[in-house]
Amino acid sequence: MALPGRKLIVVSNREPYRLKGGRLERTVGGLAAALDPVMRASGGVWITSGVKGRGDISSRIAVPPEDPSYVMRKVPITEEDMDGFYNGYSNRFLWPLCHITLDRVRFKRSYWASYGKVNRLFAGAVIDESSGDPAVLLQDYHLAMCALSIRASLPDALISLFWHIPWPPYAVFRICPHRRELLEGLLANDLIGFQLDAFKTNFIRCAQEELGARFDPEKDALLRNGRATVLKTLPVSIDFEWFDSAARSGEARAFISGFLKDRGLQGATLGISVNRLDYTKGLIKCLDSIEVFFDKYPGYRGKVVFLHIAVPTRKAEPYKSYRERVRKRVAAINKSLSTGRWRPVEYIDADFSHKELAALYGAARFIIVSSVYDGMNLVAKEYIASQTGLAGCALVSEFAGSSEDIPGVTPINPYDAEGCADAINGALTSAPAERKRSLRLAREHIRRNDIYKWAGDLLRELERARWQNISSRTSKRSKRR
Ligand code: F6P
Q: Could you report the per-residue pLDDT of 103-117, keeping only the tens digit for each?
């Protein structure tokens, strides 16, 4: 999968593995889940962040622990820089801006300073790891300024950035005080990947308006200062076969029977939602829909239980307060609806291993993906891949990329609690043949468009993008002659 003669370097803020109870465990979140299988297959280095003085940030660790196949290298960052870069510019500014939750956007100049500094530290680690000209896969909105610094030292490196979250329309992006710098930083990449065409179109408009860049539809590239940056829509995916076989395994069966027994849920019909604890995932809206569902369809009381799994990954505000709101909402629903030993919502904020998740997905009769806005949402894909019995139903927000990307899902509008309640009832009353048909369609799509295909396409496009630049330089030179 790697490009011949080029070392593969992935860079992301979130580490793929972290130490928990003395053991290395894979972290929560779409990005790590998507790229770990790729790195296992191709080898190389994954550069990530570590906070100085917090835990073990030894510089190079072979992962995964059970079958070391690539190296994880941590870039030591001071607590103060991390706060400005991650909690500040990335999560309090870019995240809500790109997800168009504008009342949550906070900006400080110091955030921007830390963001630039930490991006340069990441770039320094890439340069340090490079022997020759590497293929660098930058991941996400934390690293918009990285390519510029790498390019200054390694002009012939192949550099791409995949933007996992939405790119907002120009009218929203204009809020960004450093919009020109950010766009210039991004255009230092050979290739930028987006989840959906709409995000790519938004990006083109921003670069045209702010930088006067020209879009060449034949090259699928933005042209500026003699450089071409190719833009591609490449919806990110999962390791389909892995989830499919994990859900079929004896381990999954054993886990699920223990889980149901421990929680007194044997015989219950399960609904599920699985998220990082984040306001963009619409967790409160999801709970509202569950409450309306039991009000509108009281016949399901005592029979259906909703597993609400929400794993906190971001610990600073506004996430602390949001967690409290979610907890209180769950408690209120359970207080008003519970009867006897039945509780409508099982709220779980611990993270499960991917094997355990596959077992839970396989057992759940429906899933709710309630994002108010989401680049892709890989949980929807994981659920479908784990539905080996073809009995479930994926209710996916119209505002998550996965509802556009996957055929066979049932679109829902998380703002319309009654509509969502009806959709749950629809899922529970639909004919088995209809559910099978939809799941087959969805599964086939994800099987054919899995994470290996995504990574292969990304690398192929990256190499082509490079040729684009070399050939345009050559043709300019020959025209001059
Ligand atoms: O959804 C966007 C995203 O950056 C994912 O790509 C990634 O898994 C997650 O958010 C990281 O979030 P956190 O910083 O909370 O781990």
A: 999 999 999 999 999
